[in-house]
Design a protein that fits this description.
It contains 15 helices and 15 strands. By secondary structure, it is of the alpha/beta class. Strands 3-2-1-4-5 form a five-stranded parallel beta sheet, sandwiched between helices. Strands 6-7-8-9 form a four-stranded antiparallel beta sheet. A four-stranded antiparallel beta sheet has the order 13-14-10-15. The chain is elongated and about 85 Å long.
Length: 416
């Protein structure tokens, strides 16, 4: 009786390298294949597969080396676990790039032989991989984008969400106490509306230079160029846009930048750790509100003191530590503390003024009261200078929240 052999993967963009892998694995016995579901693919790779799961299942099943194939019903990197329990294989085969200590340990616990195969092409054929095929497709798309630059509206330019330490990038704030601002760069998977705290003025400046997409260059240098272009000497309004806007847009992933009485940060730290970025995506949503009204001022009645700026800086420190630890309770507490420190200095963020008079009908407090009362909302703030735009919430589960509240927006962090 032949042994049962199991392999698992997404098998999107099925190619000759996959077929050769199946043939090599089938030398150990009857081959059973677990295929990543559309939901798992989207969760893990943050985009939809080229082909839906039913089509991928059809293609894999009709490969001669495959005895049977199934859609994996689990999630995450071990989404194949329910299929493994169904097949009860004798041998688990992976390619060397897909091997892991977790899979090896799992096989040891269940008495399954663990085999790693080197990626080798079939004799006479070119080596293929999904990543190389996608790179070729992306290259072709980039060439197409270049020819269509005159017709684009710039919707591929990222935006940013400030998580903590907002206002510390202005020297009149950091002169009282230095500290970090924390930002994430966001894919524009939703309409990025004007006057809503998501750096639309900086995005528009970028589009004047690069209408299609950000250029491929060192992100920090790119952020410096954008900052200098936006704050050029010919600007007459006397306003200096904070560096957190250009940094948040241009530097992918999670980023923090340290300000000490200067417009540009003394140091910048980033992380592209996938589990950290997914932690944020699992707990952040945005609620659209009315844009900040023309003529509104959020700096009227500002009250900036060393103690209040220190509270802002301390909250940003705590926020960074909690995010890296994936501690949702500490993250929510620090996130909320950062916003409270902001509005202690700038109460106009919640109730802005026009001509020196508080515009109570423009207050966002009713919206804050509505969402802060919900059981699954842990913390809240407004992006940017506030006065309207969006309410950025920390929630227990972003997917469940957006399913229950259709106005809520899921966020996708831009990867490097």
């Amino acid at each position: 009786m032949k042994k049962k052999v199991f392999v698992s993967g997404c098998y999107d963009l099925l190619h000759s390298g996959h077929v050769e892998f199946f043939q090599q694995a089938a030398q150990y016995g009857d081959l059973y294949v677990g295929i990543g579901s559309d939901a798992t693919y989207l969760e893990y790779k943050h985009r939809k597969p080229m082909f839906p799961q039913e089509e991928r299942l059809f293609m894999v099943k009709n490969i001669k080396a495959v005895k049977e194939a199934y859609i994996n019903q689990g999630s995450g990197v071990i989404d194949f676990l329910p299929t493994l329990d169904l097949v009860k294989p004798d041998v688990f085969v992976v390619n060397a790039e897909g091997g892991s200590d977790e899979k090896r340990k799992l096989c040891k616990e269940r008495g399954i032989e663990y085999v790693e195969l080197q990626r080798t092409p079939h004799e006479g054929l070119q080596a293929r991989s999904s990543s190389s095929l996608k790179a070729e497709l992306a290259k072709g798309q980039q060439e197409t984008d270049t020819t269509q630059a005159g017709s684009t509206n710039g919707e591929s330019i990222p935006t940013r969400l400030d998580l903590a330490g907002t206002w510390i990038d202005q020297p009149y704030v950091s002169m009282h106490h230095p500290g970090w601002a924390i930002t994430i760069s966001l894919e524009p998977t939703f309409e990025v509306r004007d006057r809503c705290g998501l750096s639309t003025s900086t995005r528009k400046m970028i589009q004047k230079i690069w209408p299609v997409k950000l250029p491929k260059m060192d992100p920090e240098m790119l952020a410096r160029l954008v900052f200098c272009f936006e704050n050029n000497p010919e600007r007459h309004d006397g306003i200096i846009s904070g560096a957190q806007d250009s940094i948040g847009i241009c530097i992918p992933g999670l980023c923090r930048h340290y300000y000490d009485h200067n417009f540009w940060p003394e140091k910048i730290e980033t992380t592209q750790d996938e589990m950290t970025l997914r932690f944020l995506e699992d707990h952040l949503v945005m609620i659209p509100m009315a844009p900040r009204r023309p003529g509104c001022s959020v700096v009227e009645d500002k009250d900036i003191t060393p103690d209040k700026v220190k509270a802002l800086a301390d909250a940003a420190d705590a926020c960074w530590t909690a995010i890296l630890a994936h501690n949702i309770d500490d993250f929510a507490a620090a996130y909320k503390a950062s916003f409270e420190a902001q509005i202690a200095m700038f109460p106009g963020m919640v109730t802005p003024s026009i001509n020196g008079e508080k515009l109570h009908e423009a207050s966002v407090q009713p919206t804050i009261d509505q969402y802060s009362a919900m059981d699954d909302v842990l913390a809240w703030k407004m992006p940017g200078a506030g006065g309207g735009g969006y309410l950025a919430l920390v929630v227990k589960d972003s997917k469940k929240f957006t399913n229950a509240h259709h106005e809520a927006i899921n966020l996708q962090i831009r990867r490097a």
